[in-house]
Structures are given as structure tokens and as C-alpha cells.
Amino acid sequence: MSQSVKRVCNLCEAMCGLTIEMNGDQAMTIRGNKDDVFSQGAFCPKSQGLRDLWQDPDRLRGPLKKVNGQFQPIAWEKAFQEIADKINQLQKDHGRAAIATYAGNPNTHNFGNLILLPLFLRGIRSPNKFSATSVDQLPHMLVSYLMFGHQLLLPIADVDHTRYMLMFGANPAVSNGSLLSSAGLATRLKAIQHRGGKVVLFDPRYTETASLVTEHYFIKPGTDAFLLAGLVKLIFDRKLVKPGRLSSMLKGLVQLEPLFTDIDLDQVSAVTGVKREVIEQVATDLETHEPALCYGRMGVSTQAYGAVCQWLINLINILRGNFDRTGGVLFTKPAFDVVDLANRMGSRGSFRRRKSRVHQLPEFGGEMPVSTLADEILTPGEGQIKALITIAGNPVLTTPNGRKLEKALEQLELQVAIDFYQNETSSRADYILPPTTSLEHSHYDLIFNALASRNIVRYSPSVVPAPKDSYEDWEIMLELWARIGYKDSLIDRSKKLLVKKSMQALGMERLVDLGLRLGPYRKTGLTLHKLKKMPDGIDLGPLKPSLPERLYTKDKRIDLCPQPLLEAWQIFRSDPAWKQPQGMDSGEFLLIGRRNLKSNNSWMHNLPSLARSKNQCYLIMNKQDAASCRIEDGSQVQVSSPVGTIALPVMLSERIMPGVVSIPHGWGHNRGPSRLTLASQSPGVSLNDIMDDRQVDRFSGNAILNGQRVRVSALSQ
Ligand SMILES: Nc1nc2c(c(=O)[nH]1)N[C@H]1C(S)=C(S)[C@@H](COP(=O)(O)OP(=O)(O)OC[C@H]3O[C@@H](n4cnc5c(=O)[nH]c(N)nc54)[C@H](O)[C@@H]3O)O[C@H]1N2
Ligand SMILES: Nc1nc2c(c(=O)[nH]1)N[C@H]1C(S)=C(S)[C@@H](COP(=O)(O)OP(=O)(O)OC[C@H]3O[C@@H](n4cnc5c(=O)[nH]c(N)nc54)[C@H](O)[C@@H]3O)O[C@H]1N2
Ligand code: SF4
Ligand SMILES: [Mo]
Fold this sequence. Notes:
This protein is of the alpha/beta class. About 30% of the residues lie in helices and about 20% in strands.
């Protein structure tokens, strides 16, 4: 029996269309779908992980409960009830804040999770909500909230029509694009150059992407805000401010210019390590290339002035008239408009509504920065966290100071993991509730369609049947939600039961259908039924100008100078580096991160098609630096920070800026009673064991993961 299914890969943000062929029960071939309206055959080796994940013998297939330190199977119903009883008891005894939640990255790739998670979190009603957002894209969302009135309204690079792409701290040749869903992005970057355009990249490492672009420049980690400020200054000084049709939609332009008058380009050059001529050339490029765009991702989001960086990037696009313009950056018009739906539900965003208890970090979007999670568990007092529920997240490996978090977890009265792996975080839980995997349920890209370089819509059916007695993530959350609520009356309980039953009867797909029927393409008669008949998807056209209608600010104008960003600017301008760039002692380096091609954060290292025999977790160091520190290629080195020390092999290279070292995150599969047979054979070490959790962008609360200082020394064997 052979069967072929077309399906969008949900393992990263690129959304490649795949053709999956089943031959019998187990044999499965996965290829790119050439007819896909978006990806036209593009795909990457990681796609094979879909099959491996489904077949992985280590993957949990039923719920587990820890009894006397050992996991034992437990029936679903019993697990749900025991967990809910404990949550209710803890909230009754210690208040709502006693229960914390951490939602990891895969939630954004799963439409059931995206729909159910808000309901689940509302049921828990705890201020202690955390997610991977604050180790990632929080600055992007915060700046969108402050300037455009909605945290989900992110400007998207129109890579297919631009003539000039200025890129900071992104490595799409490995990541396949982020906050820029664009299957086959590497080819699209090449295409810009084939049409006579230019791609310029700033990155402290000569990355896989660097070899695809027209020009690459090293920049000292954590200093992009200085460079971007210098560029804005040049735009003003050279009278290049030409917002075009946006002029009438801008607020705060007059206030803006004086901020940049006394920026000194020689200082900028000294701090960033970028030659003054290069900065001036980029300004000239922005003048002579039209349309042009500026894009900055992880490297400039997770650094000291992440929010300032994203603000300045928006300013560069707006001031040059490349905002809301074909070939510049634009807002999308997704078939299921999550941005508008969130608005209708009253959640455009929020900022500083409260502060975290221990470190007074700001709330954003109802969440607290995850860098403070461990201290919120460890610090006694009212509001202390007593229980943690992780939903598709592995914070022991993915959040700063993982060792501290690991210790904190031991102190909890309840830990629950909704995860199909027994890994570094979930192995410490009292209960693990494993959901079905991707291929066992249908798929729709609620978030990434709204972040794509073209408006498209596709539906993906399930490929293999879900086993009997299995639950999808959303069903697990729904079951728990229905039982949580220590103050619930009998009437509340029965109402919840009713909601649960009707959601189960409806299913998540019906909600997607409703979203499509109410969405911006309703007049074309778009329904899920219609979409299902188009297995290659429907192309809804290129991104188009949509302002001022698409803005969510009250006055329908873009706020160029929101008050909170002016405060962030003041903090930035008082950085002592403006006067005197900080020196480094010998043996001291600035640490940056790195992603691995056949991996995703911490969780694909147990999949045979992706696991590599060669160790991926090594330090990259510049050859000159190595010579002065007497470090040999391939030797073991020790890397220390104020919070920890790790040891790993070193690879010497000329492709990294002197004074900078790079380590990938998501490794360290040699701790805890995990069940990751393959991953534990090539465990690596965890970068986040040495990431200092106290280093956060104090303005936004986002973690600083790039540019922390570390000491590197040779380890005698
Ligand atoms: N130092 C440093 N740290 C970083 C980064 C960095 O660059 N440097 N990057 C940061 C970024 S950008 C991110 S997004 C975070 C990611 O941080 P996390 O989201 O915490 O980590 P992941 O490794 O993505 O973990 C995903 C977990 O979800 C499980 N999982 C996968 N799919 C599903 C599913 O469908 N349902 C359920 N229930 N579980 C599932 C996996 O088994 C795994 O345990 O890491 C951050 N951490
Ligand atoms: N294969 C693979 N794909 C992935 C992931 C993965 O783990 N593996 N993770 C996914 C996730 S969750 C995300 S968020 C995206 C991230 O997508 P990207 O942002 O494209 O990926 P990163 O590799 O984090 O790129 C950050 C780049 O910033 C550089 N950098 C570090 N510090 C600085 C700095 O101070 N200034 C500048 N200018 N650059 C700096 C780094 O050298 C790195 O090349 O990738 C996604 N896709
Ligand atoms: S690039 Fe991303 S979406 Fe495309 S096949 Fe690879 S993992 Fe899947
Ligand atoms: Mo991420």
C-alpha cells in the first residue's frame, strides 16, 4: 500500500512544502514538493526528522509519573486529576502566583497549542508566565507594540523585490530565516544579487550566510546599536529623510533628529570595530539603492540594547521610505489574521504593567522574563513559585544559567512537562504528559503565515494515524484546564465541562475554518474545505502596502519616539563605551552563539538522520587569539563566566573576529535521568551553563545571549 501526502514542514519557520510518501506502515520518503505555491521544491535535511521523531523508540507514548525517583506509567485520566488537584491545592495554600508556566518555541509551530495555550494560561491565572520569547524575539515584539500598536504586527522583509538588503545578526543559511518565513531563503538572497542588487551582512563571525552575500563585515558583539545610531545620524545629516507617502502617518519626527546630532562616527567606529568608511558606504548604499531594506535578527535582539537595535532598524526603514513599500519591509495579510484576532480579543500587547518580584524586571505581553525564573523559585516570600508546568520547552538547556534552574527545579512541589521526550528538563518532572507528534495530526501555520515574505495559505493533513489513547497537546491542556480552579463553584465546573465537550466535538480545525471565513479573504469564499482541495496551497500574492489601515495605534500613526523607547535611548546614551570603548584582559573574550544546521535549539539530537558522528558542540576561536593564549586546534579548553565553567574542544579559524568566541546552544545531553539514547552518545555541553542570568536588557527584560564576557584557557589533558 503506498500513499502520498502533501504537507508543510513545521520544524522551522521556513514552511517548506513536502511530499511524504508512505510505503506500508513504516517506510516513509520525504521530499520537497515542487508544486508548492511557496517553496517550489525547496527543503532541507532537517525535514527527515519528521519521520524520525514519529518512529523514535525513545519518544514517550504514554504519561509517566515519578514514584520514589522512578518514572512509572499512569493512566491519562488519573494523571490529569492528580495534577489538577495538586495545582488547586497549591494555589489555595499559596496564591495563584505559586504556579508558573514556561511555553517553549515549538508552541508557535503547532496551531492547536496556539489556540489552547491562552485558554489554559487564563485558567491558571498566575502572573508567573514565562516563555522562550524573552530569550529570543521580545525586542521585536516590544518595539512593534510601542510603534505600531500591536506586538504581533512585525514588519517583514520583502526579499523577492528588494535591491539592497542590510542584515544584522542573522544566519539564514543555517536558520532558514526567522521572523522572515521564506522557504529557500538562501536562493532568494542570491537572487537579489543576480538582479543587480546587493546584500550586506554584519556579524562577528564569517558565517555560512556570509559566503552568500555581497559584503560581510565583522562587528564587535553587542555594539550594533552604536552602528545603527550612526547610520540614522548619517541619514539625517545627508538629508536623506524621505518617508514618502508615510509622511502624514508619522508622529515624533521633529523630536527624533536632535537625538542623533552629537553622535560621533569615529566613536561609533571605535566601539563597533567597523571602519568609518564602511559605515559611510552603507549610508550611501541606502541612498543609492531603491528599494532597500534593513533586517536584524537573533544576534541583535538578544544583546544588551536589543530593543534599541530593533527600534533603530525600523527607523532606518521608515526614514528612507522603505517601510510599507514593495521591496522594503511590509506587513502581511494572512488568511487567518492572528494579528487582528488578538486585537479583537483585547490582546495587542502590554508593557510594564507590573514588575517581577525578585529582580523588578518588566512584564511584557503578560509575561515575565525567563532569566528570572530560577530566582523566583529559589527566593522565599509571598508570590514564590511552587510548581512549574513546561509546555514544549526545555529551559534547563535553553535559558541562561541552566545549572541554577536545575537546582531550583529540585525545590518545587510539583513539576509537570508536556513533552514527548524525557530530557534535561522533563526528566526532573513529577509528571510527563507526552502529546502526539507532528505527523499524527493536521497542521496549519497560524503564526508563520503572518511572518512570511509572501501571502500564502496551505493546509496539511495528518500523515499517519494517531495511536489509540493518545492526546494532542491542545487536548492535554484542555483536560487540565477543565479541572483547574480552586475557587470554581459547581456551576463553573459544569460550564467548563460544557466548553471542553464542545471544543472536543468541534476540534481545532473548525476554529481554523472560522478564522478563514472571517479573515481578509472571506470575499473570495476561502474556507478550510476549499483549502483542503488545494494540496499545493493557495498563493495570495506578494506583500502589499497596507498603511495606515493596518496600524493599531489609536491615531493610526506610527510613533517614531514612544516614551519608553526614549528612556531606553537615555540608558544607551549613558553607556560608558561612548567615551571609552571597554578593553579586554588577556584570556578574556566576548562570547556569541551559533546554531547547527541539522538541529533546532535543544531537541533534535536524538533523531538518526540528523545526528552526526562528528561533534557539533565546539568553541570557535580566532587563530591569532589562540596563538597568544597557547591554545591548539582541536584541544580541550575551559570557558568560564561568573556563573559557571564548561570544557569543550576548540576549532581555530580565521572566520571569526579576533576577541570573539562562539559556542552553539542546546547541547549538554549528559545530565539527569534523561532517555535520549542517541543524543547522549554525542552530548556536548550546555552554553547556558555559563550564560549569566543577571545579564538582561534591563529595559525590555530580554536575555543577553550575545556579547557576555568569558575567560578561555587551555585545559591540560
Ligand atoms: N544561549 C542561548 N540560548 C538560547 C538561544 C541562543 O541563541 N543562545 N536561542 C533561544 C531561542 S531563539 C529559543 S526559541 C529558545 C528555545 O527554547 P525552548 O523552547 O525551551 O527549547 P527547545 O529546544 O526548542 O525545546 C523544545 C522542547 O519541546 C519539545 N517539543 C517539540 N515539539 C513539541 C510539540 O509539538 N509538543 C510538545 N509538547 N513538545 C514538543 C521538545 O522535546 C523539547 O523538549 O532557546 C533560546 N536559548
Ligand atoms: N538549523 C537550525 N535552524 C533554526 C534553529 C536552530 O537551532 N537550528 N533555531 C530556530 C530559532 S528558534 C530561531 S529564533 C532562528 C534564529 O535565526 P537567526 O537569527 O537567523 O539565527 P542565528 O544563528 O541565531 O543568527 C544570529 C547571528 O548573529 C550573530 N551575532 C551574534 N552576536 C552578534 C552581535 O552582537 N551583532 C551582530 N550583528 N551579530 C551577532 C551570530 O554570529 C549569528 O550568526 O533560527 C531558527 N532556525
Ligand atoms: S528549512 Fe525548515 S521548514 Fe524547510 S524542510 Fe528544513 S526544517 Fe523543514
Ligand atoms: Mo527562537
